[in-house]
Amino acid sequence: MFKKVCIAVLLLFLHTSCSDNTDRITELQKQVDSLRSKVENQYTPGFGELMSNVQVHHAKLWFAGINQNWKLADFEIHEIEESLADILKYQSKRDESKSLNVINAPLENVNSAIEKRDLNLFKNTFVKLTNTCNACHEAVKFEFNKVKIPESPPFSNQEFK
């Protein structure tokens, strides 16, 4: 009889302690989720800030390409793609974000020129990319923001050759 009582008490103890842990784990998970949400929403980069990143990498891409530094050109075009992805992630509600898909084909064409290491093709596709940027700016009423082929490197402390 004593053995049965001990087993019953032990089972009751185990049941109680397990359910307490489950409740505690659930509560801790809620706290973690809440804190994660606060951290993720702590800072959201603005549309202009993200487009400035695109502009910098656009210029760097040009100088990498015309100097036939294909590794750097490959890096820069992917930086542009990452910046555009960030716009869709952080600024998806902006009307301008809905027009970003027009840039995909010109980016793919520039990327193809980089992969082929074809300078003339690179120059031609880069001009089309730049023109597409301006067409998009016009379509979303930012026609005052005209992009052009850069005349000088954006940074004096980077080698593009």
Structural descriptors:
161 residues; mainly alpha; Four Helix Bundle (Hemerythrin (Met), subunit A); 2 domains
Mind sketching the topology for me?
Blueprint: H1 2-40, H2 47-66, H3 70-90, H4 104-116, H5 119-139
How would you characterize this protein structure?
With 161 residues, this protein is mainly alpha-helical. It is built from 5 helices and no strands. Helix 2 packs antiparallel against helix 3 and helix 3 packs antiparallel against helix 4. The chain starts with a helix and ends in a 22-residue tail after the last helix. The relative contact order is 0.11. The model has no long low-confidence stretch (mean pLDDT 89).
| Fraction of residues in helix | over 70%
Unreliable stretches (pLDDT < 50, length at least 5) are none
What is the chain-wise order of helices and strands? Answer: HHHHH
Main CATH class of the largest domain: Mainly Alpha
Q: How many β-strand stretches?
A: 0
Outline the biggest β-sheet. none
Q: Would you tell me which CATH topology of the largest domain applies?
A: Four Helix Bundle (Hemerythrin (Met), subunit A)
What's the CATH architecture of the largest domain? Up-down Bundle
Q: Which word captures the global form?
A: elongated
Q: Could you tell me how far the N terminus lies from the C terminus, measured between alpha carbons in angstroms?
A: 89 Å
Mean pLDDT: 89
Structural class: mainly alpha
